[in-house]
UniProtKB/TrEMBL annotation:
GO molecular function terms noted in the UniProt entry: ATP binding; helicase activity; hydrolase activity
CDD domains to which the protein is assigned, alphabetical: SF1_C_RecD (cd18809)
Descriptive protein name: ATP-dependent DNA helicase
Stretches that traverse the bilayer: 136-154
Origin organism lineage: Eukaryota, Viridiplantae, Streptophyta, Embryophyta, Tracheophyta
Domain of life of the organism encoding this protein: Eukaryota
PANTHER family, sorted: ATP-DEPENDENT DNA HELICASE (PTHR23274:SF48), DNA HELICASE-RELATED (PTHR23274)
Any one GO biological process: DNA replication
Ranges for domain DNA helicase Pif1-like 2B: 1-23
Record organism: Cuscuta epithymum
Length: 155
């Protein structure tokens, strides 16, 4: 995953998923995985980084590729992407119903969707796990009715 904005017009922005296809000493070739420019290859150079800690008695620079190995992303980061496989890890309940929709609508096929859900005590509920093995799952999405009524009153 790209860790900085290199070329916004080409889609090389912070959070862009890439597959490294060639690795050189000072430059690498990477193939874009996102919907925009999917499959297109880009050359990405090493960047010079200087620490922002001014308390040091000396200065130094480090050169590195602006990439990080990525196995997961936040729900917000996944927005606008289509993925073959999505695993939703919920240690705590999702705080808005829109987030749940975004999380489960990223996958291109229901067979590519998997959930890991924990209860309020941090344990994986046995009942929920059994439901999952039967190919269905129930997720409670709490909505405060007061907020809905307030929103209707404003509009």
């Amino acid at each position: 995953m790209l860790m900085g904005n290199i070329d916004h017009s080409s889609g090389l922005c912070n959070g862009t998923r890439l597959i490294v296809t060639k690795l050189g000493t000072h430059i690498l070739e990477a193939q874009m995985m996102s919907v925009i420019n999917a499959g297109k290859k880009f050359l990405i150079p090493k960047l010079s980084l200087t620490p922002s800690d001014l308390k040091l008695a000396f200065t130094f620079q480090r050169r590195q590729f602006p990439l990080i190995l990525n196995y997961a992303m936040t729900i917000n980061k996944s927005q606008g992407q289509s993925l073959e496989r999505v695993g939703v890890f919920l240690r705590r309940p999702i705080f808005t119903h829109g987030q749940l929709y975004v999380a489960i609508s990223r996958v291109t096929s229901p067979s590519g969707l998997k959930f890991v859900i924990y209860d309020d005590d941090g344990n994986r509920p046995r009942r929920l796990y059994m439901w999952f093995t039967r190919k269905y799952i129930i997720i409670c999405n709490f909505i405060y009715i007061y907020l809905l009524l307030l929103q209707q009153h404003i509009h």
